[in-house]
Structures are given as structure tokens and as C-alpha cells.
Amino acid sequence: MASYHHGNLRETLLAEARKQLEKEGIDKLSLRALARTVGVSQTAPYRHFPDKNALMIAMATSGFEELRQYLVARSGASPDLDSALVEVGLAYVDFAKNNTALYKLMFGPALANKESCPELYESAESCIKALQALIQLKLSAPESDETLWYITINAAALIKGHTSMILEGIDNCHPDTGADFDLSKALKVFLSMLP
């Protein structure tokens, strides 16, 4: 049983929910089971999360914040801009592989009414903005530049597509050309095509 200290029940519930999500999946996630695990009354979690969906939205929001921090940290350690952009892609894949259930919650269909949650939207958008900031530096473009937005979305789609394929086990060589499934190479090709 996890130790609960007065005043941090919300954080304790989120931490335990994350463990439960990774271990048992979304379907088994339960506020009552979390209450038992942390040693509080069955109704205590409902003071912080009115229902399971609210808990999952909070988990996804936290996941996006964690992903953004990870992307920024990994790209910040790079020697140059192109390396930083490649590192963002590789960091994204690593995050998804190391937090698969959370990643699927963040991007999957399990969340209801996510449009009505500005915190979730803002935390998800912050990940795109981390990528956009690097591309903006590379292009020397103003933030309002429409081309910058389209290039950012295409880079994000390339990264997310590779990540999805890797999580689905589609990460082998091309049968005809022998080209390997390497996100860093794909991103370098993408970057070489930028103006």
C-alpha cells in the first residue's frame, strides 16, 4: 500500500493511477481501486476527480507536460539545430516506448470530452510548440508564418507516424531497397528539404 500524506492526495492518486495504467491497462483503471491502494476512503478520490475520465484527462495532461520537458531536455543537449530536431524525434519515440500505456492514453480514443479541457489542450500544444521553436530557429521565420506551422505539423506527423509504426512492431527494413527503419535518417532527409 502506498503511503499517503495529508495534502498531496491528488498527486498520490495520479502516481498510483500511472502505475496501475502501465501494469493493467485503461480498462482496469478504477478510482475505488486507487483509493484502496493509497489507503483512503472510497469517496476521497472523487474530491479531486469526479469520474474516471477526469482522472485520465489529468494523467494525459501530466503526460504531455512530462513529454514536453523530455523533448526540451534532450534537444537542449544537442550541438546544433539539426541534431536538436533529430533528438526531439528520438526523444518522442523513447517516451512512447518507455510509457506505452500513457502514450496510448494521451493520443488514443479513451478520453471523452477532451475538447472541453483547456489544460489538456495547452499541455499537448506545448509539445508541438517545443518542436516549432526549433524549426522556427532553423528557418529564421516569424512565429506567425503559415509555412512554419505547416512544416511543424509535417515534422510532427513524421515523428508520430514512425512512433506508431514502431509501437505496432513495423520497424524492419524495406524489402526491396534494404533501407532501414531509422527515424533519425528520415528526419535528416526531411530537414534537408526545408528552405
From TrEMBL:
The keyword Transcription regulation applies. Pfam families: TetR_C_33, TetR_N. InterPro entries: Homeodomain-like_sf, HTH-type_TetR-like_transc_reg, HTH_TetR, MT1864/Rv1816-like_C, Tet_transcr_reg_TetR-rel_C_sf. Residues 30-49 bind DNA. PROSITE patterns: HTH_TETR_2. Keywords: DNA-binding, Transcription, Transcription regulation. Residues 7-67 form the HTH tetR-type domain. GO terms for molecular function: DNA-binding transcription factor activity; transcription cis-regulatory region binding. It comes from the Bacteria. The keyword DNA-binding applies. This is HTH tetR-type domain-containing protein. It comes from Endozoicomonas numazuensis.
